[in-house]
Amino acid sequence: MTSRIDGGTPLPTQVDKAEAGRANERAQNQAKAAKADRVEVSQDATLMNAAVQAAHDAPAIRQDKVEAARKALDSGTLGADAAKLADVLIDQMMDEKK
After folding, report:
1. Cα dist. 86→2, 47, 97 in Å?
2. What's the pLDDT band for 44 if we cut at 50, 70, 90?
3. Strand partners, 12
4. What contacts 2, CB < 8 A, 6 or more positions away?
5. Distance between CA 72 and CA 78 in Å, rounded?
6. What percent of the chain has pLDDT over 70?
7. Which terminal CB of the chain, N or C, has fewer other CB atoms within 10 Å?
């Protein structure tokens, strides 16, 4: 809203000044928002986070494996062949060195 004095150029009113101030403030806020800090997470980090979360959600003791080992020990099939166990352990250690 503007007013004229003696047919000259329009003079801004208080409403015009207030609206201009609000428009300026909105523009400044938008400029600040455009320059705001951002964080982008890589796909590798997202995958690693999912793996860590899955590990935390998994039970600490896999009861099915414990029961299978207990049955194998009771039946005599677990640890019955010491030479075979030694060969497997040596093979695993040799593979780790490669």
Report:
1. 97, 37, 17
2. very high
3. 2
4. 10, 11, 12, 13, 16
5. 5
6. 86
7. C
Mean pLDDT of the chain: 82
Binned at pLDDT 50, 70 and 90, residue 7 comes out as: low
Which tokens sit at 94? 């040799």
pTM: 0.30
Over 70: is that where the pLDDT of 5 sits? no
Proportion of the chain above pLDDT 90, given as a percent: 22
DSSP for 30-61 reads HHHHHT-------HHHHHHHHHHHHHHHS-SS
Specify the residue for token string 């609206």: 19
Nearest 5°: phi and psi at 2? -125, 160
SS3 80: coil
Q: What are phi and psi of 18, to 5 degrees?
A: -65, -45
Q: Find, among 70, 73, 51, the residue nearest to 62 by Cα.
A: 70
